[in-house]
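Exam prep: given the inputs below (a chain plus flavin-adenine dinucleotide), describe the expected output before reading on.
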Amino acid sequence: MPNIAINEPVPFEYHAPTNIKEALALASQYKENFAYLAGGCDLLDMMKRQWNTSAHVIDLKSIDGLRGVTTNSNSVTVGALTKLMEVQQSKVSDGLRAFRNAASRVASPQIRNMGTVGGNLLQDSRCPYFRGPFLCYRHGGIVCDAHHGINREHAIFGGDRCFTVTPSDLAPVVVALDGIIHVHDIDGERTIPAHQLFLSPGQNIMSMHSLKNGSILTHVEFSVRPGQRSHFIKETVRNAWDFARASVAISLELREGRAHNVRIVLGAVAAIPWRDEPAERVVEGSKVDAATVEKAVSASVKGAEALQYNGYKIGLTRKLVRQALTEIMA
Ligand SMILES: Cc1cc2nc3c(=O)[nH]c(=O)nc-3n(C[C@H](O)[C@H](O)[C@H](O)COP(=O)(O)OP(=O)(O)OC[C@H]3O[C@@H](n4cnc5c(N)ncnc54)[C@H](O)[C@@H]3O)c2cc1C
Ligand code: SF4
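Solution:
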């Protein structure tokens, strides 16, 4: 178990492949004993604390074709190595505004200039016990220190031994926008719907995502649909930069004044981006006026189960649902 005073990684060998084939060959050579490096904002912290003791670091940044935002007539593709700042400054269509909003709300400009889209989606739990010297379930232990500890940031949905939440601001947005995740591994290329990228503790208590060891997330694809609108908002303790206490991503298509394909996805309330289906059902097919918004708010966040210190998230999330639905129609 790491000592909290540790602040340096175990010795490792650094590799900088220039194409995916080379990266996958290195991954298959070093099997369980390597880590892919993108911006390093998450990985280096885990290595310095020696929770990650990989002997090989495979840097993905020199690989061509994994970076940039490409707009086609009916889709937008974002490379996994695209910096969050590049997304913030990109000219994605209005329908995908939530993606740009979310990137611009991540941490500070320094971190947005380092952190990447893929790394943001695949980052590990930010539970303070997990990041500290505690051998909890998520590290293979037999206890959740947060459950009987300070659990202000923790889950109100989907807790199952572990009550961590997704720390990624992009995660609820890629689910709300029905993003397609492109992955390259030793067996070739494949795609998965964004909601299948994220794992609840019941599915796998030691990994927050479903990528197999050695898989490389290459890009995220969104379709651009007529009448599409999207929005993202988050609430933090500090305004300057902070992880979300709760967030809401919404996507819908307006046709003849009515909302269709409505997605209302909550962030930082569960280990996975949490679709608020009861609220979605209220808005689906309706005119999004003040009465619909209030009905959706009443239906939202149903079934939440608070721990000792995180009951505030229920009211906070409902407030964000109201704000997001109101602002998306403005
Ligand atoms: C102080 C601080 C504050 C932060 N605040 C926020 C916040 O408010 N909101 C928020 O959303 N995030 C926040 N973050 C997270 C940050 O935005 C980074 O996006 C995130 O830490 C990881 O991105 P990265 O590119 O640095 O990934 P890395 O640290 O390089 O990698 C993260 C993980 O993903 C794996 N990985 C990375 N890219 C790929 C790929 N293409 N294929 C396969 N595996 C890959 C790595 O092996 C590693 O396990 C914060 C981070 C810090 C340090
Ligand atoms: S919430 Fe999860 S990550 Fe945090 S202490 Fe409990 S088991 Fe560990």
